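New to this. Please check this protein:
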Amino acid sequence: MQTFKPVTKQDAPKLRRYYQNCSYGLCEYSVGTKLMWRRTLHPAWAEIAGCLVIRNTIDGQTAFDYPVPGPGGDEDAALTAIESYCLEAGVCPVISVVPECKAAKLLARYPYVRVSSIRTWRDYVYYREDLQFFTGRRYSGQRNHIKKFHTQWPEAFFRPLTAADRDVIERFWADYEAEFPKGDNAKARDELALAQKMLRMAGKSFFLAGGMFDGERLIALSLAERCGDTLIIHIEKALYSYTGVYPALVQEFAGAFGGDCQWINREDDAADRGLRTSKLQYGPAKLAPKYRFEPQNELLCHVKAIPELKTERLTLSALTEADIPAYNALVLDRERNRWWGYDDVAGLGGPVEERSFFDVARRDFANGLAANFAIRLEGRLIGEAVLYRFDYQGGAELGCRIDSAYDGHGYGAEAFAAVANWGLYKVQLNRVVAKCYKENQASFKMLSSCMRRNGEDETFFYFEKPV
């Protein structure tokens, strides 16, 4: 399984190699957001197929950012790696904060998918020239506020902030807290604490920081990061007692650090009414959507209960509690299962109890991860066929095992073909795949009789049956 490393400050230069040229334009695709909100997002990262892949864990649920390719990076390979990781972990793949430019790609990739785009988390994105110059009638209010600010504080000026300004920044926070209007709001206080922590990184090469001064007193500050053609504003704070300082700060910061950027992203409003009002007053060019893709597989969409399938000699149906003794004997036959490819006992993660394997099969079906069929001869359980590893792109893997007492009669091939056809024509899969160890000649012969070979590696022969 792919290994992910928790994001730390030391990882920032490595992440910036991808984010500095990222064209997605969303605040989540930046070092600042990953560091500032890591206690909420719990981001971890890996480099896969020349792409940066971020795995977030939010309220115990796993969600991935869309892969960010470096030069020559392979997005499709990175997405496949995400899907494989989720299959191994037994969770559905979720790709979140997907930029609009990548939504069509995922819609084409997943036959069944649940898509959402919540207004609350859309980023406010502005033309850089609009915030730098405030030209036109719609910005008359901002221009008036800036004029009044400079009339009242004519000596006020803007300059970049560096690591040498740490004491000045700390004094600003003391002044800011003294007039903080949301002191009784726990969420606002948490955000303020995070902002204070982030400003200690002013002077880092990947952050742009600047402040408005009244003499030697810092009265407003901002911290940003350039990603592609977008300047992402992570923090904007000002003393409320200096009327008009916010638009003055916005304009000066855009002029100082906007360069040839096309866009300035001032992030989302987190459903805060005051923030929403303020951000809208600056005339955003767009509210950039962030799509959440939750792929669904065919089992979840089409199968409410495991059906009964009949062949010439066999009946295949759902496991029942009456099957538990025979099923346990099948699963615990280590000699027979040396070619099964999965350690059922280790997979439990705990002690083996009478109902352990039965409960796993039932839970996997309820979660849309697998369909376990009991293979019955004259009513007696003699084996198992499992359709599992749904890849969310129309494919699933099929495995079959028969009790050693019933070996050599073709029951495995008969059951295998029945479940494969059910998957293709009832569950509406595009293909069913299977594999066998190269040393397992019996399985090789059985799979060759009902599927076509489509590859091999050092360990397995691979087979496929398309619709």
In short: The mean pLDDT is 94. The CA atoms of residues 153 and 214 lie 7 Å apart. The chain is about 35% helix and 25% strand.
